[in-house]
Specification:
Organism: Paenibacillus chartarius
Number of helices: 9
Largest sheet: 6 strands, antiparallel
Order of helices and strands: HEEEHEHEHEEEEHEEEEHHEEHH
Pfam families: ATPgrasp_YheCD
CATH class of the largest domain: Alpha Beta
Structural class: alpha+beta
Protein name: YheC/YheD family protein
Number of strands: 15
């Protein structure tokens, strides 16, 4: 494994440092680092004396905090094979399904359904044209996409024409295009859409300066094995971007301050309570389907009336947004909580064995 391929080494270093204070050794490895006889791994260990990562052979740990990004089927099958080979290890979380399966499952919950934008699978150009004309603002997104890759936004303007914006598969912002009603079907045909795309009702996320925004809420298991909202932060997209992802050039903002730019103070507090309440419902609902989870990054939007919408759920969330807005305590807690939950899981297993 090449260290340069690991996107989160800085995060792993912080995990290692916090783990040491909690009495946990943090090892970093991939499925490729497992010895062929499955008895050991060649892991990266952070050496605080030299301040560098070093390699060493060690036993496979009892507990796994899976941060693998499934970028392509090869990586997905490697991780799946590892889980199948070592089913008795403790895994902090579990992989979730693609966006469409998650949407369908969320729709079954009467408390979550009112917060879901209308979403359908891409079934062809004619159906998509009808959907766009009905909802006026629509997002087209890959079922398995991450980080804003391949997302397109189509909005009907006041003149009756359409504004087409988006990013390609490499996150590069595409040049915005204005097209007529007569050009809509042809433009959709040229975008290379497949059945792997979803068509989703758009929520108006545009600020007065023309930039889009949303909110990332982080809910995690704490040291008692219970769900707890760690924090929530606003994300403002780069100019001309249709997504707010920090990886795509977005900036971070404090939730209360961002909401206060649009709503009176009393309504801001009510919106924040609604966000937190929805997060607990989502976390509990997903665990009923997928089993025990560790943490969820929940992307939320607030429309001009103050209604909260669920945009996406990420089981392997980043926490950098809290560092960027200067909430040091929240950022530290966001790093520490998976380790505290790991200790709780180990304690639970020890109690079961003693019983």
């Amino acid at each position: 494994m090449n260290k340069k391929k690991l996107e989160e080494l800085a995060f792993f270093q912080k995990l290692s440092q916090r783990g040491r204070t909690l009495g946990l050794d943090v090892l970093v490895f991939t499925a490729e680092d497992v010895k062929p006889d499955q008895t050991a791994i060649r892991a990266l260990v952070f050496d605080r004396t030299s301040g560098k990562w070093i390699r060493r052979w060690t036993n496979i740990p009892d507990l796994i905090y899976d941060r693998c990004r499934y970028q392509g089927p090869v990586k997905y099958h490697q991780v799946k094979a590892f889980r199948n080979q070592f089913p008795k290890l403790i895994y902090l979380g579990r992989p979730l399904a693609n966006k469409w399966v998650i949407y369908q499952y969320m729709s079954e919950n009467d408390r979550i359904a009112p917060h879901l934008p209308v979403t359908v699978k891409f079934t062809g150009i004619p159906d998509t044209v009808k959907f766009i004309k009905k909802h006026k603002l629509v997002y087209l997104k890959p079922r398995n996409g991450t980080g804003g890759r391949g997302i397109l936004r189509i909005e009907q303007t006041s003149s009756g024409n359409y504004l087409v914006q988006g990013r390609n598969a490499n996150r590069v912002i595409l040049q915005p295009q204005r097209i007529s009603d007569a050009q809509l079907a042809a433009k959709l045909g040229a975008l290379g859409l497949t059945e792997q795309y979803l068509v989703q009702q758009g929520i108006n996320l545009v600020l007065p300066d023309g930039r889009v925004h949303d909110f990332r809420l982080l809910i995690q298991k704490n040291g008692r094995g219970q769900w707890d909202v760690t924090g929530c932060a606003g994300r403002i997209g780069a100019p001309r971007s249709i997504t707010s992802n920090l990886h795509g050039g977005g900036t971070a903002a404090q939730t209360e301050q961002l909401l206060a730019r649009r709503f009176p103070r009393a309504q801001v507090a009510a919106i924040e309570r609604s966000m937190h309440r929805l997060a607990y419902i989502i976390a509990d609902h997903l665990e009923q389907k997928y089993g025990s989870l560790c943490e969820l990054g929940i992307d939320l939007a607030v429309d001009p009336k103050g209604h909260v919408w669920l945009l996406e759920v990420n089981p392997k969330p980043s926490r950098e947004v809290f560092r960027k807005i200067g909430e040091k305590d929240v950022y530290a807690r966001a790093i520490s909580r998976p380790l505290e939950y790991a200790l709780w899981l180990l304690k639970q297993r020890k109690q079961r064995r003693s019983e």
